[in-house]
Amino acid sequence: MKVIRFTLNGDPAELGVRSDETLVQILRERLGLTGTKQGCDLGDCGSCTVLLDGEPVLSCLILAADVEGHTVVTIEGLADGDELHPVQRAFHEEGAVQCGFCTPGMVLATTALLDANPNPTETEIRQALSGNLCRCTGYTKIVRAVKRAAEASRIGTRGCES
Amino acid sequence: MSREFQWIGKPVLRIDGVAKVTGAAMYTDDMRLPGMLVGKILRSPHPHARIRRIDTSRAEALAGVKAVVTGQDAPVRYGILAVAEDEYPLAVDKVRFVGDEVAAVAALDEATAVRALSLIEVDYEVLPAIFDPHEALIRDDVKIHEETRKANIERKVSLSFGDVEAGFSAADHVREDTFFKAAATHAPIEPHSALAQYQDGKFTLWSSTQVPHLLHRTLAKVLQMPAEQIRVIKPFLGGGFGGKGEALPLEFAACLLARKAGRPVKITHTRAEVFLTHRGRHPMHMKLKTGVKKDGSITALQFESLLDGGAYGSYGVVTLYYSGQLLTGPYVIPAFRFDGARVYTNKPPCGAQRGHGGVQPRYAFEVHLDRIATDLGIDPLAMRLKNAVEPNTRTVNELRITSCGFKECLERSSRAVSWTERRGKLPRGRGIGIAGGFYISGAGVAIYFNPMAHSSVRIEADRSGRVTVFCGASDIGQGSDTMLALVAAETIGIPPESVRVVSADTDTTPVDLGSYSSRVTFMAGNACHAAAKEVRNRVLSAVAEALDVPVDRLEICDRVVGVPDNERKSFTFAEAVALAESRGGPVCGSGGYTPPNLVGSYKGGGVGPSPAYSFGAYAAEVEVDEETGSVKVLRLAAAHDLGRALNPPAAEGQVEGATVNGLGETLLENHAFLDTGQHASPSLLEYKVPTALDVPEIEAILVESIDPEGPYGAKECGEGSLHPSIPAIVNAVYDAVGVWIHELPITPEAVLKALRKKEKP
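Output (structure tokens, whole complex):
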């Protein structure tokens, strides 16, 4: 057992973890953040994607003890109160959500992509999301949602500059 | 429908969309109850074995273990079909595939539960196993189920319509082909999960089920409890595609463990267990023989199918019938003969998967049809247009075709890829292909015989002006809750966002048979329409009386009920509901939908009839690398006749998703087994579902034929939309490199082999 301290969705977090516990386990089972989904527990499906220091990672492959001192953002940490994050809004409004199980991981992977590359090409979008499986949508509306979110962010950025 | 729709046909946001993008949506595995235990299932390591003895004493003695159950705790046979009740919740006497459920434990934590499984001692007498369906057809010395009369044949079917011999005699050309389509599996991203609670002699089961009502019935039977003491709730569900369409062992095991332990028990499958549970696409061996006139018109069709069913019946008898019954369209087939068999093998059971029963034969027939067209020198598109079924006709096996936009689907998808200008004219390695399909909008016959409605809806309007729809329909991600809100809203005249939907809870919602056979929009939609009309009429008659105007002068618009353009003669919707409530009690409406009796006049005539059929035609463009054999799909133009698009983005999403499922089955997916019966690829790394990189943007083309019996003219959209995807790609491969692929999936090896074979004289 080790006590870890890290930043979770902007707040300080502290808890004791076993050496074999994974990040997804502590998020879902210990901290009640069930928005992070678990589709395979093997690093194949991408539904447990969270942001670790802004980078998308598979929380089923990260040992909880390793997040000591780091910053974790889960899907619950994205919206600002009732105000959806632009990526969340784009997924909702574009019809990119069906069963919703891959959605938290997709949204976070998209957020990381757009933070690093605000103007991705379609191929870059598909590459960035290729580790996140969706069985419902055929990806068409997901890719469109990413483009829409990118567009919205660009407008937002310009708005700030002017 | 004279007036313009207020919301139908316009994009409506999913009512559960915000919950899903914020992570607030609770799926079964997200739930926790005080004192909840973790359940785990012990599975057979043998493909076929007799169980001599099970000793659970060491597992029970392990600290932290709260209950252990085996087949003896519920030795009751069940099955989704009354004609195939061949399963036990946990094995009683035999195991029939590697992964068959043998026992289950509930413990304080997962590690203890897993450890306890290893302490259960099972004494197996290993039996010879059968993996090849052809062997299963003839081997009498190995009986997977004692009840099979001949070898391991679960069911044989022979049907004949029209004068088949005369049809072939009249033909100018007869062609025979054989095809094989490998198994595929649903691979929903959410693994199955079930959480059971037993309190005060009553069960509550939260489960990732597509069929809360059918699960409820089966639980009552297996647990030997009155149905009134069992409640089934489906929380948010992360994809089904048919794989959660029947009662499954984990649901029984969770209940049995919860009762024994006296504490709630949750069982969530590992990804490997999702693969072993399967119930997916049957591997199908198919033989087709078709006669045609010189002008391309079909004179007769003969079809044989052999279905490798795996260890249990599941939906398989229906799959078997569909495999033939759904070949009589979307082309006019004047004479048809069908012989099929489903056999048991020692592999995970096959069942229903999106497009159920029709997918494999549709692939075979559409490629066969292209080969015939090629033989005759006729353009494949012209061949299809020539034989296309027309609206308001009957197929040779008595299926009633009403609305039908098949020709428009052919025209629009072919136009999208500039068929006439490009087919047969692209540089080598590039090709386009086309294929058609059709599918039921719900089975015309209920899964168990009963005279009641297939779907029922109750709607309540309260004095705050809120409208709540109650329906047993199970939203599995396809958006049926949003569909119900939309149909209720349009019918009553209030905005969809002011409608709340309570669904899939057997204690509070009236029965809907479930999300299978692409039935929900048609059936629950019709039931909802009827219930909403009743609510509307209650409100309008109260207002008419209060204002002393005839009902037909009133309208409901923008939450205002009254005489149009007359502010003095109007009420807010909330006031109008209160008025109605004061004059006749709670404002409720109820409606049910029962399909017309369309059963054919022959044995087996119950499988195939539907109140409406969707139609589709897809055009694919591919690039084939002749060095590596790899096939890349560059375009898929998917025209689907769905009657009416109630909510266009939702409908497009169904078509896009199904089309990509088809692409996966064509190029990537093979649910295969090793020679020893072990699953060959029980992970999402090894079993390849399409990623965002494997697929092009799907061009969904919604064709609206406005069905006379569908809710606002709508019919199915989510399953038939898989059918044409597969053969369109296969036919495009021929156009690209001149080889026909008769076995799926199209691996690079298969393409190279076909190319080499073609090179030889």
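The longest helix of chain A spans residues 140-161.
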